[in-house]
Amino acid sequence: DGGITQSPKYLFRKEGQNVTLSCEQNLNHDAMYWYRQDPGQGLRLIYYSQIVNDFQKGDIAEGYSVSREKKESFPLTVTSAQKNPTAFYLCASSIDGGGSSTDTQYFGPGTRLTVL
Amino acid sequence: AQSVTQLGSHVSVSEGALVLLRCNYSSSVPPYLFWYVQYPNQGLQLLLKYTSAATLVKGINGFEAEFKKSETSFHLTKPSAHMSDAAEYFCAVSGVAGNMLTFGGGTRLMVKP
User: Fold this and answer.
1) Per-residue pLDDT band at B96 (split at 50, 70, 90)
2) Choosing among B101, B103, B107, which should be mutated to test the A contact, i.e. which has the most A CBs within 10 A?
C-alpha cells in the first residue's frame, strides 16, 4: 500500500529544544516537500528536494533544516531559532518536481507541533 | 509571481444545496490548477486538477471545476452537498517554477442538516 507517512502525529516541545519530524514515502517519487500550515494562511513552503543529497529553501526556511540522504526520507528539523514553531506540518511528494502535467503533489497526514 | 485568492474563508450551505467555492489566480504563465480537500487533523487529498486538457474538470466525490481564462478563475462546484463534504478546501496554482505550488488561504465548508 503506497503512500506517505509522517510521525509522530502530535509532538510537544519545550522552548529552546530542536525537534525532528519524520517523513517517509514509498511511492518512488524523486521530489519531496515540507509545508507549514497556520489557521487562515493556507500552506507555506519551507523546503523542497528534487533529488537525493540536494534541497532548496522555500518561502519560510528560516529556523528550519532538512536532509535528503535517501530517496524515501526527508526529515525536517525545527530548530530553536524558529520564533513561532507551533503549527501543523505537512510533507508531500511528487514524481520529479519538474512541473509537468503529471507531476502532482501528494500529501502525508501531517504532524501537529506544539511548543510549551 | 503567482498568487491565489479564495473568496470567503467560511461557506455554509444546507444539505442538498449547490456548493460553490471560489478561486481566482494570477500567473505569468499558463497555469496548472488544483483543488485539495482537508478533513480535520489530516493531510490534503487531491480533488481534481486542471492541466489544459479540458476546461471542465471532474474530480472525486462529485466535485467539478471550470477553468475560465478570461476571468482567471477556477471555481469548485458540487450540485448537491452532503454532510460528509464538510471540510476545508484549498485552491492551488503551479507553473512558474517547476512544481512549486502556491496555495490560497482555504475555505471552510459547513453543511447544515
Assistant:
1) low
2) B101
